[in-house]
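Checklist before submission:
- one chain only
- standard amino acids only
- sequence pasted in full

Submission:
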Amino acid sequence: MFDPNVFWSAFGRAGLLTGAVYRPAAGPAVPGIQVGFTRPDVLLLGDMVQSTDYAIEYQTADMPALAIGETLAIGADTYRVRRNPEKKGDGTFSHVLLTKL
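Returned file contents:
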């Protein structure tokens, strides 16, 4: 049977993932979570303003209860979850938008 998690560990070994520390609203921090961190630029106000959307893709099993308002430390910065995570495909991976604090 096909296991998509095999790719995730390969991405990590290739340096394509970033380490994060999950800080749930209740309970201790969870270090060592591997995420695909992106910072795409977006154009707003009729393309007059450029901003950045922060987002991560992660294995759903690593943070199954991730919720709006919780925080993640990625590198030296802290980010707050700004939308409910969206499961992708069969639910093995999820995607969520963040706000830099």
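Reviewer check: The helical segments are 5-13.
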